[in-house]
Design a protein that fits this description.
Layout (H helix, E strand, L loop, with lengths): L23 E8 L2 E8 L2 E12 L3 H9 L11 E10 L4 E8 L7 E12 L5 E8 L9 E3 L3 E11 L2 E10 L7 H23 L14
Parallel strand pairs: 6-8
Antiparallel strand pairs: 1-2, 2-3, 3-10, 4-5, 5-6, 6-7, 7-9, 9-10
């Protein structure tokens, strides 16, 4: 059973998605049935984001794509490696190791993510992720990201329709111009949801969802 791609947006933001009160929420992108909001916190110069879209597929199919680690690199921007370190499908918990391909001359980034999957009484499926400092050896070729949080939310709107929302925040570390980082806050989630739509249009057999999401 494949489990857990939880890449809300690891190149984009910085602080915590549940952090201090935000001062400014802006609808930055609204096209191709995808909306991206950027969120500016007065205490943090790097923006957070929220993005959402609707997909004309069953909710199970949309979630299964997110959980398909083996094919994540085919549609998640900047992702060059992902592996499952541990998983407990009964509890819906897992750990992932990811490597992110940053443009030259920047060093690539890596991180270890602790994740939790759940389904509430209304049938909304959530996947919550947070970077942890332990769980995989440090590699001198990469810059380790320790500040990252990202959520996915899937709400069934009909037999063949689902609302997908993703929230994200990550500190990319290192000497990267703030303007470049904040540009990714807008563009990366938009590109990711666009590629997600394309991927779901391909004929593919997805693994069944773990019991905790049924």
């Amino acid at each position: 059973m494949k489990i857990a791609l939880l890449m809300a947006c690891v190149l984009a933001c910085s602080a915590t998605t549940q952090a201090a009160p935000t001062d400014n929420v802006k609808l930055s992108i609204n096209k191709n049935n995808i909306k991206v909001w950027t969120i500016q916190d007065s205490q943090n110069p790097i923006m957070m984001y929220k993005a959402e879209t609707t997909l004309n597929v069953p909710i199970e199919q949309a979630v299964a794509l997110i959980l398909d680690v083996d094919h994540a690199m085919e549609w998640v921007p900047f992702l060059s490696q992902m592996k499952v370190l541990s998983r407990d499908e009964k509890k819906g918990e897992f750990q992932l190791y990811m490597v992110l391909d940053f443009p030259f001359p920047l060093k690539d980034r890596d991180l270890v993510v602790q994740g939790k999957m759940s389904k509430d009484a209304q049938g909304i499926i959530s996947i919550q992720n947070k970077a942890i400092k332990k769980g995989y050896m440090l590699n001198k070729n990469y810059v380790r990201l320790n500040q990252y949080e990202g959520d996915w939310s899937f709400q069934k709107l009909g037999p063949q329709k689902v609302k997908v929302s993703t929230y994200g925040y990550a500190n990319p570390e290192g000497s990267i111009p703030l303007s470049v980082v904040n540009m990714f806050v807008q563009q990366q989630p938009y590109q990711m949801l666009q590629k997600m739509k394309v991927e779901l249009e391909k004929p593919k057999n997805f693994a069944p969802l773990p019991d905790v999401l049924k």
